[in-house]
Amino acid sequence: MNYYQEITLLPDADISLGFLWQNVFQQVHIALVEHKVDTNQSAVAVGFPDYRQAQFPLGSKLRLFAKEQATLEKIAINQWLARLKDYVHIKGIKPVPSDVTYVSFVRKQVKSPERIERDMQQKSALWAAKSGKSLAECLIELEKSKPTDLCRLPFIYLHSQQTKQRSPDKNSKFPLFIEMHPQSASLDGVFDCYGLSAKASGKPAFATVPHF
């Protein structure tokens, strides 16, 4: 990644930083979907320079990265964030400095409490049918290995566009948990339409972005 563009979020007394992240990142996601280079693949990646270094877990800055300056110019992120212009400061596109480290920002899949409970019920029913034990016995046994829904990673609440299209009356809001993996060197790879590193087939590691 050779070029970047930095967006600073500007909360005020009425608009919280968390609410701004939801709205800014939702627009960035839609922009990346519109300019995707393959199924759920983006030529633009995102970075969080203040990840877990500020009072708010993601800080207040978002960076967009691309190999070519023209890629960021084509996205024209200013237009996508036009309705939020009073709450963001968008700098011009710049070359990435030479003195950087490298990290991978990755989506962490975390099951909701409702999903965990639903899975427990399904597993218990299957186990009861196979073993001849009662459903209550199977539930008690499975409770010992029940996964926790607790996750302390930074996250952004987003709306699933697919859920909104399929079921307009259904709540489409979900937390996008983001995990940072430090890397020893720059690694090429695949980024999804959230701009996060995704494992490519045949690749042993996640793609990286500069961190500075």
Structure notes:
With 212 residues, the chain is α+β, with helices and mostly antiparallel strands. It has helices at residues 17-34, 69-75, 77-80, 113-131, 135-143, 161-166; strands at 3-9, 45-47, 61-66, 88-90, 94-95, 101-108, 155-159, 173-183, 190-191, 197-198, 209-211. The strands form 3 sheets. Strands 1, 2, 3, 4 and 5 form a 5-stranded antiparallel sheet that branches. The chain is elongated and about 65 Å long.
Topology as a string of helices (H) and strands (E): EHEEHHEEEHHEHEEEE
Give the helix tally: 6
Structural class: alpha+beta
Q: Which segments are poorly predicted (pLDDT under 50) over 5 or more consecutive residues?
A: none
| Helix fraction bin | 25-40%
Shape assignment: elongated
Mean pLDDT: 87
Q: What can be said about the biggest beta sheet?
A: 5 strands, antiparallel
Q: Nearest-angstrom radius of gyration?
A: 20 Å
The fraction of residues assigned to DSSP E strands is 15-25%
List keywords for this structure.
single chain, 212 residues, alpha+beta, 6 helices, 11 strands, 30% helix
Q: Which helices and strands occur, and which strands form pairs?
A:
Elements: E1 3-9, H1 17-34, E2 45-47, E3 61-66, H2 69-75, H3 77-80, E4 88-90, E5 94-95, E6 101-108, H4 113-131, H5 135-143, E7 155-159, H6 161-166, E8 173-183, E9 190-191, E10 197-198, E11 209-211
Antiparallel strand pairs: 1-3, 1-4, 1-5, 2-3, 6-8, 6-11, 7-8, 9-10
Helix pairs in contact: 4-5
Organism: Pragia fontium DSM 5563 = ATCC 49100
GO molecular function: endonuclease activity
Keywords: Endonuclease, Hydrolase, Nuclease
